[in-house]
Specification:
Blueprint (H helix, E strand, L loop, with lengths): L14 E2 H24 L7 E6 L3 E6 L2 H19 L3 E9 L5 E11 L7 E2 L5 H18 L1 E3 L1 H8 L4 E8 L19 E4 L4 E2 L3 E9 L12 E3 L2
Antiparallel strand pairs: 1-6, 2-3, 4-5, 4-8, 5-11, 7-12, 9-11, 10-11
Helix pairs in contact: 1-2, 1-3
Length: 226
Amino acid sequence: MSTMPKTIDVGNVPRKILVEVCEDVSEFLVIMAHTVLYRFGGYSPGEFREYSYGGVVTAKTCLDERVIRYCQRSAHLANQAMQKHNLEKYEVSIEDRTGEALISFRVEFRRTPIFYNRTIKNLAEPELCRLRHNLAETLLQLQSVKISDELQDRLENTPTRLRIRLQLCNKQPKRLFKITAEPILPGILVPWSDPVRNEYNQLIFAAFVPADHPSTSQRPWISHNT
């Protein structure tokens, strides 16, 4: 499925750089969640369709309406929190039935110290173009992540579910739709892409993966295709 490109000329309607940055980031968060589910969630490839992200990256989005609503709702809440500088972390996990995260991808948000919410008249604003390009590169990195055979076997042979969590600044984690136990995260935190910076905030990307077993200590659980 392809997306309609953003209209370049927004006429006389004033737009704020803050709103556009948050819109672009929230779209990325939706596709990030679908990508994690496609790569590690155990769904059949036939349950996904192609999605053109930014006209640059071909991603996969799930056809399940429940998944679609869940991802969109999560990103909408993230967008609202971002605009108030109240979003600290956005985390997409594949969990087992006990709530243990078998693999988890996190985006951490850092506030830019000096920010001027200027008005823009063109969505081809260089700052926005750079942001979209960098987010597309980050999505490519996520698509190229490789995991160990041991972790792959565990994901394939364990009933799992998608879990999205928002951590708000100085508040309890915001859960979506129902209260569940706090997830148990694996033991190793590794970056899965370079940070993405813009005028408004900075995004830092990290993945939680299982701690090495002594028998596999010489092999990484997660890496990138080269």
